[in-house]
Amino acid sequence: MRALLSIDYTNDFVASDGSLTTGAAGQKIESRLVELTKDFIFKQEFVVFAIDGHETSDLYHPENNLFPPHNIMGTDGRKLYGKLAGIFESNKNKANVYWISKRHYSAFSGTDLFIRLRERQITEVHLTGVCTDICVLHTAVDAYNLGYKIVVHKDAVASFDPAGHDWALRHFKNTLGATIV
């Protein structure tokens, strides 16, 4: 059984005026990300929107020292970007579509993702979204450590750091044994 993990494809990470944007690189993957999401939903496979969420009152979060405020709960910056927002809205009440608010880079850290995947006997996770070398990477490492087969869609992941993006794709394949498609 397979699951598609759609990671952090929000206005703050993708829109041109997003507070921590991947810009053109993130915008370029939109059509492929939408196509994959529709395909997984249509085939009744599990689709998880794993979305970063921060509170302005959280003074102790380590990202505060690394990045500008982003994906603040209740803001437009945290909403899904572009056409993916419509796909989610049209399908959010389906049993195979699930939203996870995450506080850390990995979609597994501090969430019920592992339980949700195990309940559905998922053995293979397909990774999409941003940033390839941050949240997608940390999710892939946790998936590897939990024994999942990993598939990374290189035309559906992006970063604001081209060198980091390329390094992460090599790392997925060479260190985590992921299939890159």
Write up this protein.
A six-stranded parallel β-sheet has the order 3-2-1-4-5-6, with helices on both faces. α3 runs parallel beside α4 (82-91) and α6 (132-145) packs parallel to α7 (162-174). With 181 residues, the chain is α/β, with parallel strands linked by helices. The chain has a single domain (2-180), classed as Isochorismatase-like (Rossmann fold), CATH 3.40.50.850. Helices cover 36% and strands 21% of the residues. It has helices at residues 11-14, 24-28, 30-42, 82-91, 113-119, 132-145, 162-174; strands spanning 2-7, 46-52, 97-102, 124-130, 149-158, 179-180. The two termini are 18 Å apart. α7 links the parallel β5 (149-158) and β6.
Domains, number:
1
Shape: globular
Mean pLDDT: 95
Tell me the name of the CATH class.
Answer: Alpha Beta
Strand order of the largest sheet: 3-2-1-4-5-6
CATH homologous superfamily annotation: Isochorismatase-like
H/E element string?
Answer: EHHHEHEHEHEHE
What Rg, in angstroms, do the CA atoms define? Answer: 15 Å
Q: Runs with pLDDT <50, length 5+? A: none
Structural class: alpha/beta
Cα-to-Cα separation, first versus last residue:
18 Å
